[in-house]
Amino acid sequence: MTTTENRPGSDVIDWSAAPAPTDEAGWLQRAREVRRILERDAAARDRAGATPYDEVALLKESGLVTLLGPVEHGGGGQEWPAAYRVIREVAAGDGSIGQLLGYHLLWFWAARLVG
């Protein structure tokens, strides 16, 4: 079960209980959920300058890191326009984590491109 107990005012989200989104609207909803978690303490985390271990785990648990992957390999099967929208949504909650997600998706795609 996915928890965010270490975040102030957090709630518990169990993304494993529901199937991964299958369309852009579902992925955007998932990104909004991540945004709501991140925006609660983004300024404090930014000031602390700590390594974002929990935030990376949150991106993984939410499945957003698989957004561009082929469905047959467990990915989201989405294209770049959806990825841009998801990145912007996450970045609205925490710009640094949105940038991190963007770079992850870029390098993931680059490996597929030249693989």
TrEMBL record:
Pfam family, one: Acyl-CoA_dh_N
Protein's UniProt name: Acyl-CoA dehydrogenase/oxidase N-terminal domain-containing protein
Coiled coil regions in record: none
Origin species: Pseudonocardia kongjuensis
Record-annotated Acyl-CoA dehydrogenase/oxidase N-terminal domain positions: 35-105
SUPFAM superfamilies to which the protein is assigned, alphabetical: Acyl-CoA dehydrogenase NM domain-like (SSF56645)
